[in-house]
């Protein structure tokens, strides 16, 4: 009897750990098709954790999306980036669900949104709704699935949030009929010499055989008394090709739990701390995602627990047993065991040029070159390291400043910094923009002038310079032709390109009447509706780039 009671106690305890008192099966799967996922909560993405589940839609669009539970539609968002077309539902149990990358909302809501877009003369929208305007019942049709916004293929992005905090919660902890009996997989195991920054100490691989985490070769000897660990791994919920992020990782030293990380309950304004949770440098240099099993000093995201920051002291020279658990939300676990020992004979020292300046987490800073100034906040950096700021003379014909090298693109920065650069040519000053090149990534900023100095803001490091842009965007009319006839339901398509790659805005008007052109990338689409004047009208298409260059094209069009 005691044995049965103990087994039931353990079962209840384990299930309680993972359910965390979240209501089980209160939310239904939001489609009437078989459950199939392509991404989970906490999966690693560029500059953020994935905050929900990506639900497959059978490789097609316009699957009927259903309300996961009773509530009311509380927010609508329309954009060519991010969630695309998105709606949120507030539920009476204190949670909110989100449905992203939609094509169209259900008819009554779609009509409300269209009227607001025309009232605002803006296709992009982000607004909240009162409680009784659009009430919904569990299983009610609310939208059609799609591929809008920052989506690479048809699917539904689904989230659960806490209404009181706004934090994203792991939907796998709510049941929803999603099963999982597969253990996480380990692809790589690494250690870091923590006498130095994680950006200056390269990850050293610990050989692992198989995805179950077997370390062979006896004791791993290292040339540093202080180490931390990182792992590359993925999880699955089914034998499909889709691989997900790992929910929980725990580090034990000599059978004592030292630190753990759990991906749940993440504030939306802190997603960028994902860059502090990975070996950012290794990823940007073409390697895998390696997750730290230590908290970097500037990582303020509350996903860690334990009595340590994860840096292990091996200074006694004795062998120490290291155990790592990788777990999913259902309690499936992969265990890694090995022994590690510090050997002073293997120790190597690093040296750094004296002109470098050490930057520190939690401390703001200001660095200068003869023609530039770089200012960062106390939140900017996750780890201590030696910062390299240089000024490089440029002879590029459209560049009107030196190139300011802000260390390297593979060093993450958490928030926006300020960069002020002096121009060496003030002709066509109004067409000068600030350009950042960060590896293969480029960004433009229309900064503010202070006499001959432009001030701008970016959130990546790299090379920054002032560029004179005198080229206007190019409007390609697509299927629009002079004198063409259209009717309600006809679709007009236009594409816009720019020499620097960034289109700031586009608009279409018929005899002055603003028209609802939807955006996907740099393609703009208008489905002729009641707002286009009947008969013959002048269609004016206007595009503007970041520098303020404007292009206009005009067509005569006839609506039957």
UniProtKB/TrEMBL annotation:
Name of a matching Pfam family: Peptidase_M23
MF terms in GO: metalloendopeptidase activity
Entry-linked Gene3D superfamilies: Glucose Permease (Domain IIA)
Signal sequence residues: 1-19
All copies of domain M23ase beta-sheet core, residue ranges: 49-115, 135-167
InterPro entries per the UniProt record, alphabetical: Cell_wall_metabolism_enzyme, Dup_hybrid_motif, M23ase_b-sheet_dom
Protein name per the record: M23 family metallopeptidase
Lineage of source species: Bacteria, Pseudomonadati, Bacteroidota, Chitinophagia, Chitinophagales
